[in-house]
Amino acid sequence: METFILKIPAIIAHNLGPKINSKANDFGAYVVRNGLTMYFTSSRSSKKEHLYIMKRKALDSAWSEPEYFKLFFNQDGAGGITFDDRGGMYCSTDKNTPNKGNMNIWSGSALDTTFTMKELPGPVNSPRWESHPSITSDGKDLYFASNRDAPI
Fold this sequence. Notes:
Layout: E1 26-31, E2 37-42, E3 50-55, E4 67-68, E5 78-83, E6 88-93, E7 104-111, E8 114-119, E9 130-135, E10 142-146
Antiparallel strand pairs: 1-2, 2-3, 3-4, 5-6, 6-7, 7-8, 9-10
């Protein structure tokens, strides 16, 4: 039997404090590649979860106060958000879902402050719950959570 040794670098976690960690549900933090912008999902201002954005001027400076991230569907429930290196954006929302409590994944791109979003077709979205997308930097592979039946 062969033995493989996997070296894992030391990870030091720091609590980001009350700006991002509220008493509400705060999750799905995504920091863009340059480290100066962070998106996350929170239910801090209502019972529904919405997207928020925080910025900082340099890697060693403090994060700004969270701001509501305005997308055309953010009045509906929102889940995670992710970006590829070409400016493609993927996020989840319950907008237009056929069943209450379901989420679907949408894709889009940003031009200045205008976002063009479209709901992804099957096989990504289904009548079930699809959320928490994560796209590879080259935009070729999309990973997401779903409550579909597991393949046999």
